[in-house]
Design goal:
By secondary structure, this protein is mainly α. It has 4 helices and no strands. It is elongated and about 70 Å long.
C-alpha cells in the first residue's frame, strides 16, 4: 500500500488552483479576442445570404425584411441566426429552447 504526500499546505494548494483558474480565464479571453474577426465575418455572411432572399422565401421561413433590419442592430459579433430564430419562435408562439 502506498501513500501520496504533497509538499503544499492547503492554502498553497488553494492558491495554485486559483492561479490556474485565472490563467484559464485569461487564455479564454485571448482566444475569444483572436476569433472575434471570424465571428463578425460569419454573422455578416449570414445576413447577406438572408438579404438576397425574396420576400416569399423570407415569408416561408417566418421572417420579414424588418427582421433582417433589426438583426443588423445587434453587436458586430452576435449571431443573427440566434436572434432571427428567436423572432420566428416568438412570431409563431413557440417557446424558445
Amino acid at each position: 500500500m502506498s501513500t501520496v504526500c504533497t509538499h503544499y499546505t492547503s492554502s498553497e494548494a488553494l492558491s495554485r488552483v486559483r492561479d490556474a483558474g485565472a490563467a484559464s480565464r485569461f487564455a479564454n479571453t485571448v482566444k475569444s479576442a483572436m476569433l472575434w474577426p471570424l465571428r463578425v465575418l460569419r454573422a455578416r455572411r449570414e445576413l447577406e445570404m438572408l438579404a438576397r432572399m425574396s420576400e416569399n422565401e423570407l415569408k416561408d421561413i417566418g421572417l420579414t425584411r424588418t427582421d433582417l433590419g433589426d438583426a443588423t442592430a445587434l453587436p458586430a459579433d452576435a449571431s443573427p441566426s440566434e436572434f432571427l430564430a428567436a423572432r420566428v419562435d416568438e412570431r409563431f408562439g413557440r417557446k424558445a429552447a
